[in-house]
Amino acid sequence: MEFKNILLEKEGKLAILTINRPKALNALNPETMTEIDAALDDLAKDTEIQAVILTGAGEKSFVAGADIKAMQNMNVMEGREWALYANGVFRKLESLEKPVIAAVNGFALGGGCEISMACDVRIASKNAKFGQPEVGLGITPGFGGTQRLPRHVGMGMAKEMIYTGKIIGAEEAYRIGLVNHVFEQEQLMDEAKKLANAMLVNAPIAVKLCKQAINRGMQVDIDTAVNFESELFGACFSTEDQTEGMTAFVEKRKEKNFKNK
Ligand code: CAA
């Protein structure tokens, strides 16, 4: 598929997916959502790629939300279909079997805040702004905001943000645990790459299983969760990367040759 609204770049083991509609502050219209969907399928299949950075084009906006102009005249069924489709795409993003870092470089509002929350880790530039302003448009958040925001920042803070629609800055997002780090805008991509590289030196298969353990474990009771963790831990002992990682430790060898097997 040829992309018009996103860029998909690959640098070795790292992919950079950029939402690229800067004139609309990278708002998510249906075409862009379809392209993100296709890019995720590509990334899932590409065994060379072991980490992904998601960002927005330009210096003003990460993603300023779902495209309001595209939604303005939707009827009930169209609104429902749009939310179901986008939620499916964001679940695909959340479940991608490689870490995804959101490099939030400006506005992350509505669907923008929501797509960042479907990533594993969020880092932000100082000018980043987060919020779920949907109630001011007469709608609820529709791409997972009512579900992921309370999971990330707790119910009280999420309810305050969602009921008021208030927009918070990067430092406040950091304070409430919505982002892990705040950087100068010009350092953001380098820092995102550094973070990705700190993940990429480890056994990809182990990182992938950690993602499964955390994502699934957080949705179930603690007994089911730790049992699932035990199963995955056991499965690691069938991998060449477990042999390599432990042998390197015993041999006091820093360089490891992980094969993702
Ligand atoms: N949808 C469609 N177009 C958008 C957009 C959006 N979410 N956000 C910005 N744009 C467009 C503007 O319409 C404008 O286009 P034109 O030049 O053609 O008029 C262009 O991007 C630049 O925007 P502004 O002139 O408004 O820029 P600004 O600096 O004055 O304001 C802003 C920036 C505060 C982010 C403002 O654009 C804004 O409030 N945007 C909407 C934010 C929002 O409400 N997001 C939630 C959408 S609903 C949603 O996401 C539902 C869901 O959960 C799925």
Protein model, in words:
- The chain has 261 residues and is of the alpha/beta class.
- The protein folds into two domains: 6-200, 2-enoyl-CoA Hydratase, Chain A, domain 1; 204-250, Lyase 2-enoyl-coa Hydratase, Chain  A, domain 2 (Orthogonal Bundle).
- The chain is built from eleven helices and ten strands.
- The strands form two sheets. It has a six-stranded mixed sheet with strand order 1-2-3-5-7-10, with helices on both faces. The protein has a four-stranded mixed sheet with strand order 4-6-8-9.
- A hairpin with a 2-residue loop joins strand 1 and strand 2 (14-19).
- Helix 4 (111-117) packs across helix 5 and helix 5 (145-153) crosses helix 6.
- Residues 24-25, 27, 64-69, 107, 109-111, 114, 133-134, 137, 141-143, 145 line the site of acetoacetyl-coenzyme A.
CATH architect. name of the largest domain: Alpha-Beta Complex
Report the sheet-strand fraction: 15-25%
- Describe the strand arrangement of the main beta sheet, using strand numbers: 1-2-3-5-7-10
Sheet of most strands: 6 strands, mixed
Rg calc? 19 Å
The fourth-level CATH homologous superfamily of the largest domain is 2-enoyl-CoA Hydratase, Chain A, domain 1
Say how many strands there are. Answer: 10
What CATH first level of the largest domain would be assigned? Alpha Beta
What is the CATH fold-level name of the largest domain? 2-enoyl-CoA Hydratase, Chain A, domain 1
Q: How many domains comprise the coordinates?
A: 2
Helix content: 40-55%
Listed once per kind, the bound small molecules are:
acetoacetyl-coenzyme A
Structural class designation: alpha/beta
Taking pLDDT < 50 over at least 5 consecutive residues as the criterion, the unreliable ranges are: none
- In angstroms, what separates the terminal alpha carbons? 30 Å
- List SSEs in N-to-C order: EEHEEHHEEHEEHHEHEHHHH
Oligomer: single chain
What is the average of the pLDDT values?
A: 98
Number of helices: 11
InterPro entries: ClpP/crotonase-like_dom_sf, Enoyl-CoA_hyd/isom_CS, Enoyl-CoA_hydra/iso, Enoyl-CoA_hydra_C
Protein name: Short-chain-enoyl-CoA hydratase
Organism: Clostridium brassicae
Family: Belongs to the enoyl-CoA hydratase/isomerase family.
